[in-house]
């Protein structure tokens, strides 16, 4: 799963051809560590319809603040440069896939 930063966010997320699921995470966050394997699996299995990236909120505070992220993990789906869905907290893979389907 790719990582993005304040510097690379616009190029990797906002101008992407596919919808992008951004995981706003932190190293100190247990639920973030819990959902990391789920995000990696979705990144590999759904690469033809959605791009999955991770953003560390501690090293990228500008992007985190710009999108009003206050809790981790926050998962946002961007389509055509705009956020179209936001989910807070770890969740099972099946539920996350359903939420992705609903947003796309």
UniProtKB/TrEMBL annotation:
SUPFAM superfamilies to which the protein is assigned, alphabetical: Thioredoxin-like
Q: In this UniProt entry, which cysteines form S-S bonds? A: 29-32
| This protein's UniProt keywords | Disulfide bond, Electron transport, Redox-active center, Transport
| Pfam families in the record | Thioredoxin
Tell me yes or no: is Transmembrane among this UniProt entry's keywords. Answer: no
Q: Which Gene3D superfamilies match?
A: Glutaredoxin (3.40.30.10)
GO cellular component term of the entry, any: cytosol
Which family does the record claim for this protein?
Belongs to the thioredoxin family.
Task: Kindly provide the name given to this protein in its UniProt entry.
Answer: Thioredoxin
| Record organism | Streptomyces zagrosensis
